[in-house]
Amino acid sequence: MAFKEGQELKIRVKPSDDCCSFSINIGHDPENIALHFNPRFEVGGDTNIIVFNSKSGGCWGEEHRNMVFPFCRGEECKFYINFNMESFYIRLCDGSMMDFPNRLGDVKYKYFDVSGDARIIGLKIK
């Protein structure tokens, strides 16, 4: 699957009833992740926060944290991601927008990974 600049990725996800966190990773491979999107219900001292990061050559960058948290355990939600060479733009299920720098600066990514306590209901690239 290729995700290119100007396209929109729609993700429908359902966190489990006892979800601690889940993450969506977009990049080239597990060692080069342009967007690490990590909603945390309660993990490692973090509660109801979204953590963003990137990884280059296996090394994590500086985390960005956002207190907007529209996710609910056990409830399906959808959000949208698009990007350009400078930034990723995420529109959450409550309509709020956030962005994160495209630190790798590429216009096409083929690696996609979901982990944690949530189930992907649907994925669509337009």
TrEMBL record:
<feature type="domain" description="Galectin">
    <location>
        <begin position="1"/>
        <end position="126"/>
    </location>
</feature>
<dbReference type="Pfam" id="PF00337">
    <property type="entry name" value="Gal-bind_lectin"/>
</dbReference>
<dbReference type="GO" id="GO:0016936">
    <property type="term" value="F:galactoside binding"/>
</dbReference>
<keyword id="KW-0430">Lectin</keyword>
<dbReference type="GO" id="GO:0043236">
    <property type="term" value="F:laminin binding"/>
</dbReference>
<dbReference type="InterPro" id="IPR013320">
    <property type="entry name" value="ConA-like_dom_sf"/>
</dbReference>
<protein>
    <recommendedName>
        <fullName>Galectin</fullName>
    </recommendedName>
</protein>
<dbReference type="GO" id="GO:0030246">
    <property type="term" value="F:carbohydrate binding"/>
</dbReference>
<dbReference type="InterPro" id="IPR001079">
    <property type="entry name" value="Galectin_CRD"/>
</dbReference>
<dbReference type="InterPro" id="IPR044156">
    <property type="entry name" value="Galectin-like"/>
</dbReference>
<dbReference type="GO" id="GO:0005615">
    <property type="term" value="C:extracellular space"/>
</dbReference>
